[in-house]
Write a structure and sequence with these properties.
By secondary structure, the protein is mainly beta. The protein is built from two helices and 22 strands. It is globular and about 55 Å long.
Length: 323
């Protein structure tokens, strides 16, 4: 895949951490289990809308997806969940579930997605701006409780989405995707922040992940700019939350090997929260954000993970303090 005309380049030793076939389905070791998850998103700050598409499948064919769109003028938010199964011979080059269709061309690092729901319809392609980045390229690595491996990638979109009859062009928009595989211990992390942000022309894109688990803290992700993809080495962050502990804004100073850290500022325009469950008592909050990357206006998405009992305690404490 070295002949793909990427906008940003990953060092060969880091690019080698990801194989082309890693975008396809992973099979478990004999007697073992496996879970793949695939994710695409785009945030449009000037439209005040954020879209995410998430698909998962286990080794026995159990599968599910969520297609979510939220933001200004979308009331209520679209949160479409579908559950079902995929056939044994599905290798992820072509996926169909609950009205969602995904096609992946691993040779060109291009994916095409379409969906027809009650309120939301979409059809767009995602073309990678750089080779896929593995969290094993970061000094803190990828904790085994999270996944066997996880790859992240910025890309350019072509296509459209339509909400309640209103069509929004995605032509030339920048988005993000990831793919992780391996079993996840949802109860292990005490907190995480995951984010993606980008300038409108893709000249700067980034993905970051901050995790706290077992009393340890780590970071992962990359900054892509000036034609180069660089692993993040440190993130100093501060987040403001409302009375419901929904993230409202953040300032992050990100070290990635450059002479000066990159300053990322995020301001939430809308957020959604996924309900906790008895099986996985954690709460995920997704925020669509306006962003500035070293002062350049852009868009982003900012996710937080909390153990639900602790989140409830934080909410009650904050609300009591506010009277």
């Amino acid at each position: 895949m070295t002949d793909i005309p990427y906008l940003h380049r990953l060092a060969p030793d880091l690019a080698a951490l990801v194989r082309a076939e890693d975008d396809l389905r992973h099979r478990p070791a004999p007697g073992g289990q496996m879970r793949d998850s695939l994710f695409w998103q785009v945030s449009l700050a000037e439209e005040n809308i954020c879209l995410q598409i998430y698909f998962f499948a286990t080794d026995d064919g159990n599968a599910g997806c969520n297609i979510c769109l939220w933001g200004g003028g979308i009331d209520p938010a679209v949160v479409d969940f579908h559950a079902g199964s995929i056939p044994e011979d599905c290798d992820f080059s072509s996926i169909s579930l609950g009205g969602l269709s995904v096609r992946q061309d691993i040779g060109t690092q291009r994916s095409t997605l379409s969906y027809a729901g009650t309120r939301l319809k979409l059809d767009f392609s995602f073309a990678a701006l750089h080779a896929a980045f593995s969290y094993h390229a970061n000094a803190d690595g990828l904790p085994a409780w999270m996944a066997t491996n996880r790859i992240e990638q910025s890309g350019m979109l072509q296509g459209w989405l339509e909400i309640d009859g209103r069509r929004v062009s995605l032509d030339g928009r920048i988005g993000h995707r990831d793919h992780s595989w391996g079993l996840r211990e949802w109860a292990m992390p005490q907190h995480w922040k995951w984010l993606a942000a980008y300038t409108p022309d893709g000249s700067i894109t980034m993905n970051g992940w901050i995790w706290i688990a077992g009393g340890e803290r780590g970071v992962a992700g990359y900054v892509a700019r000036d034609g180069k993809v660089s692993p993040i080495t440190a993130i100093r962050d501060h987040t403001e939350y409302d009375a419901e502990m929904m993230q409202q804004s953040a300032v992050m100073n990100i070290d990635y090997g450059a002479e000066q850290p990159m300053e990322l500022r995020l301001s939430t325009f809308s957020a959604i929260r996924f309900p906790s469950s008895k099986r996985n008592p954690v709460t995920i909050t997704e925020a669509g954000c306006a962003a500035t990357l070293d002062g350049i206006a852009g868009s982003g998405q900012f996710e937080t993970h909390w153990p639900t009992p602790y989140l409830d305690y934080l909410r009650q404490r904050k609300q009591a303090a506010q009277g």
